[in-house]
Amino acid sequence: MMKQLKLIKQLKSGSQKALACFAVLMTAVFVGTAHPANAAAKPGLAVRSAIAIDADSGQILYQKQAKKALPIASVTKLLSTYIVLEQIKSGKLTWQTPVKIDSATAKLSHKSILTNVPLTAGHKYSVRQLYNATLIYSANAAVTALGTKIAGSPQKFLTKMRETALKLGLTSAKIATASGITNGQAGRQLGDPKVDAKVENKMSAIDVAKLAKRLIADFPAVLQTTGRRAAWFDKGGSSQTAMINWNLMLKGGSQATANLPVDGLKTGTSTAAGGNFVGTVNKQGHRLITVVMHAGNGNGGDATRFVQTRRLMNWVYATYRPVKLATGAAVAGADSVKAFYGRAKTADIALAQPTTLWLKKTQSKSTISGQLQLAKSATEKDGLKTPIKKGADVGRISLKLDGQKVASVDGSTMAPAKVSQTDDRANWFVRVWRDFLALF
Fold it and tell me: What is the pTM of this model?
């Protein structure tokens, strides 16, 4: 650029000056458009399916074949883990609860072709030990043992997994094993005897992202475990195993980078699934969740899933910027609502809590608008029910950018809405008069 300007300054004649001005103009045009063009370009991921979302709102920032159900392998353990943490929260389990290992689960734990920590039949391990082995080392028998403890049998736990998937809105989920191995690898005692041996768990990238979002939101402490690079299983005991996290993007891992402080979440590998990875990173106070599916074969030293995840995360940060909308902020198009029986006849509406919206770097805040969706309990006469109390939650605002609803894993990006001022209900005579006028 400096060489170009120096050359232009050296031009002397009128025609040369004219050419110089044209060169400066064209240079400015190309320089000015280079960043937006690069920012808008797709990341070009070498994966079958992928998605990137904001962890809080679920806003979709990128997606590729995200609704296609594909094998998920050990990513399954995020669903199993969610159930374990639900059981602990409800008091049905504690971290110290002993889990006795049956012979079938012990046999599974010694299969060398599967990721495992060795378990001894008849021995008892704590929920904490098996939970850590599940998330840090992706131990298949460990999570199977937890499921059996919770439901009474492996098959009953599969039923619970399917019910939980429906409860969480994971409509694409097809579950045959608690761990993500094939039904044949689990065997008739630990798998589903009603399905073929080749059957493997499946889910879409958008549902995996939805699951990861709920897991982090409902049980944020899970990140303290998924973020651990290494740990011991049963240290000093007969099953002592050094566990190294399969997530190579964690600090100290071969695929870690200083600009992406990844602290989770789960890998998944099988012949059918290839290399899957659910990643999450908290940067500058905003957390992203990414999912890449069938990125390379995932075997041995294949780092494709991490390379593709890094590319996706860097693309999001290069393309978008998070904009925080404060509590009490008005959103164009959703900043007021009719209150037919109120004294003022209208009420001002604002955000009930801080909300983050990711805008492309080519977009300004002026492109943000919304559509108010009143709660049924707060509605009368196609408007707001009176009397109105300042600060009362009255529904949600569906956020828009450039007039289009902002897509999220839950459909559209929503923000809770509240009333900005108190208003009394109009007296009986006024209400009757308004009803009368409404007839004409």
Answer: 0.87
Of 49, 57, 109, 138, the active-site residue reads 138
DSSP state of 319: H
DSSP 8-class letter at 295: -
pLDDT at position 207 is: 98
- Backbone angles phi and psi of 392, in degrees to 5: -70, 135
Q: Can you read off the two tokens belonging to residue 63? A: 């997606």
Give pLDDT tens digits for 395-426: 999 999 999 999 999 988 999 999 998 988 88
Closest CA to 209 of 278, 127, 275: 278
Of 77, 149, 266, 400, which residue is the catalytic one?
Answer: 77
| Angstrom distance (rounded) from CA 399 to CA 278 | 26
Tell me: cis bond preceding 265? Omega within 30 of 0 counts: yes
Catalytic residue (choose from 49, 57, 74, 369): 74
Reported as a single tens digit per residue, the pLDDT across 60-113 is: 999 999 999 999 999 999 999 999 999 999 999 999 999 999 999 999 999 989
In eight-state DSSP terms, residue 102 is P
Tell me the backbone φ, ψ of residue 150, rounded to 5 degrees.
-70, -45
Respond yes or no: is residue 80 known to be catalytic: no
Rg (CA), the chain: 28
Contact 202/69 with Cβ under 8 angstroms? yes
For residue 174 the two structure tokens come to: 């097809």
366 catalytic per annotation: no
Distance CA 68, CA 378 (A): 38
pLDDT in tens, 272-293: 999 999 999 999 899 999 999 9
138 included as an active-site residue: yes
